[in-house]
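As agreed, record minuted below.
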Amino acid sequence: MDLTHIVEKPAPENAPSRLGVAGRYILTPGVFREIANQPRGVGGEIQLTDGIAALMRREKVFAYQYEGKRYDCGSKEGFLEANVELALAHPQLGGSFRQYLKGLSL
């Protein structure tokens, strides 16, 4: 889909849609110029999303909508959840990993 707007961490009531960025990008080199010219954004950080939003003024930016579960791998808990769930679903590792988890004394 052709993007017309992208926002870094909007409050739910201000979000322009229910879609979210999953952090997988194929970007043109122009985004680096935009990032270099960005002021600090949300959290006092220079945000890639703000660079992409600026890039949209010069180039088309597209998104791919997919179905599936999204993990917040930017948090330690989300990173662990993703790894555990993917390990359990793995055809070769799932069974032995499940047994390992059952053997833990929690």
Q: What stands out?
A: DSSP finds four helices and no strands in the chain. The mean pLDDT is 90. The longest helix spans residues 76-89.
